[in-house]
Amino acid sequence: MRQFAIILRSNSLIDMGLRSFFSSMIARDNYDEVMEYLAVKETQHAPRFEFDQAPEQLRELIAVAETPRSPERSKWLNDFAEKTWAVPDGEATVLFSKEHLNAIRFLNQYLREANAKMKQDGYFVCAFDTAQKHRAQIFSKYPKIIAYIIYFFDFLWHRVCPKLSLTRRFYYLCTKKVRKVFPRPEVLGRLYYCGFEVVSEQYIHDRYCVIAQKKRQPSTEPHTYGVLIKLRRIGKDGKYFNVFKFRTMYAYSEYLQTYIYENNDLDVGGKFHDDYRVTEWGRFLRKTWLDELPMFFNLLKGQMKLVGVRPLSQQYYNLYSKELQQLRIETKPGLLPPFYVDMPETLDEIQESEMRYLVAYMEHPFRTDWRYFWRIVGKIIFKGERSK
Hints:
The strands form 3 sheets. The protein has a 4-stranded mixed β-sheet. Strands 5-6 form a two-stranded antiparallel ribbon. Strands 7-8 form a two-stranded parallel sheet. Helix 2 (31-41) packs antiparallel against helix 6 (131-141), helix 6 (131-141) packs antiparallel against helix 7 (144-160) and helix 16 (347-363) crosses helix 17 (365-382). The N and C termini lie far apart (52 Å). 49% of the residues lie in helices and 14% in strands. The protein has 2 domains: 31-132 and 168-214, Rossmann fold, CATH 3.40.50; 228-382, no CATH class. The chain is of the alpha/beta class. The protein contains 17 helices and 8 strands. A hairpin with a 2-residue loop joins strand 3 and strand 4.
């Protein structure tokens, strides 16, 4: 009887679990609740802009934009945009995007035109629907079991097809209106790529509003959406070289390095805390180190060696002490860093770890790399050590 009661109880628990699972799969997300969450989550590291010191035009624009939606509000904003774009090139103090960025086919070209219109340190105001909002719209409209299927094909159509040369023309041929879907980091990165610096981010109603200042001329570096990317790093003798990796971040995220550093703290292991530039797929690649496989090309080209300090971007390099900066450029960077021997947590500890390795390497190059190689392999294979 006791065994029979246990079986009945187990079957009851399984039945409750199945009912709970199926209930969740036919449920819909609450759009308003999701947007309230995103309004906090996506702006938690945004800079705090002092509107009291902003030009009167900009304060008036934001004040009107924050009023409830109405035909009068829409007309005022459209008239304001037309007026700001009517000024001669190089004369605009405040420039308001004529339409939301999702509806602009050649976005970089549009941002370059905005840059040319503006005075130095002028303010460019734009708005767009984020990819997270687009997802919330789908999951609040359909039951989850259907929403996942729709979202998958929607992702392929609106996120992948416009970016691939093979499908781009077909996408615009089939789409009467441009309705691109942009992740927030991509739009911010495009602004930096086109010569702006972001000074404010916030949701106004359910549309993401960004205020950026013109700081420089647009970049002329070519940019691709390919899975294989080249990252500019500092190598031996202080010379720059391109490190090959699989993409783990949203497009244009590499141009946000300074912005992320200024607004996010460093986490354990010297990485940025809550780095929203990294995609979910990218986190898997980083955890399994698959993203670093292309770096063997750098090894074969003689730009890197097997064991050595990691190649750094200029932003990270500037955080190091002058003494360590000099030591770093006296040798090639490596694929397997001394980080895995000491597992340092703070930036100071990382510098101490690298200093110990480099001093030892300068005295006994082969013996040091041989010793570090086996210690790193042991930590990774037998202790499962990973960078954060």
